[in-house]
Amino acid sequence: MATFMKLFVILSIFSLLACSTNAQLVNNFYGTTCPSLQTIVRNKMTSAIKTEPRIGASILRLFFHDCFVNGCDGSILLDDTATFTGEKNAAPNKNSARGFEVIDTIKTSVEASCNATVSCADILALAARDGVFLLGGPTWVVPLGRRDARTASQSAANSQIPSPFSDLSTLTTMFSAKGLTASDLTVLSGAHTIGQGECQFFRNRIYNETNIDTNFATLRKSNCPLSGGDTNLAPLDTLTPTSFDNNYYKNLVASKGLFHSDQALFNNGSQDNLVRSYSTNGATFSRDFAVAMVKLSKISPLTGTNGEIRKNCRLVN
């Protein structure tokens, strides 16, 4: 009996190790099954950004919002149907998440080259990386092998995606819940060096907060009135809104963070020194951002036989 129990324990350990190994993403997952994948994604993202530079930020935001809800599983791409409620109409995404058509275009080209092989989740991860690079930011090797979710969670999207109104303690807690540190929070927030925000999300900051440069507040008030104009846009980085650089941190040091959650990173708190460091050293920011993006991309992926490879990113098979 003792021998049997020892054998059972050993087999169980090997089984666990095998499952753990199977769950690992790998850098060249499609090397033989879809060798043209990365070229297709890069070419389509190049075309999309030439048409509209902002799309790089939009795709990056999609990836963040995907990974923060049940992991990087492509769930954010699913449309609502008569019998299915997805994440697109959750508060953090409704009328603001964009770039879905770009992912559709990439998926169509990938399917033409490698039918039923590449997940939408992996396409989104690659597109986010390429968008950053094409706007002047760093690049990194994206670990691949994710599969697509057959489910989504609007309630999780509502509760787990950080809000532009969040303070530092809330942000730190929400990132920690995903296995990300306060330093990861600060460097990943540097994604706000590109893209734009809606008036409704920064109105209170520019009219009521005191840790804000007065000239900056006046500038932003010009297209964000006290009432109305909720969807009017302003750049998250007032200096170089379509270039991926470290000016976001220079803005924070100058009290010109657009969202409350941005300025919370530099407000006599624990992240002040790191923000100050990134504001003076763009190379360090780029290096750390690439590392943090790989870490983000590994949050709870579906692998092996879990999930599926969607034929259409908007619908389960």
From TrEMBL:
Amino acids binding heme b: H192
Binding site for Ca(2+) 1: D66, V69, G71, D73, S75, E87
Key words, A-Z: Calcium, Disulfide bond, Glycoprotein, Heme, Hydrogen peroxide, Iron, Metal-binding, Oxidoreductase, Peroxidase, Secreted, Signal
Domain Plant heme peroxidase family profile: 24-317
SUPFAM superfamilies: Heme-dependent peroxidases (SSF48113)
Role this protein plays: Removal of H(2)O(2), oxidation of toxic reductants, biosynthesis and degradation of lignin, suberization, auxin catabolism, response to environmental stresses such as wounding, pathogen attack and oxidative stress. These functions might be dependent on each isozyme/isoform in each plant tissue.
Name of the protein this chain belongs to: Peroxidase
Higher taxonomy: Eukaryota, Viridiplantae, Streptophyta, Embryophyta, Tracheophyta
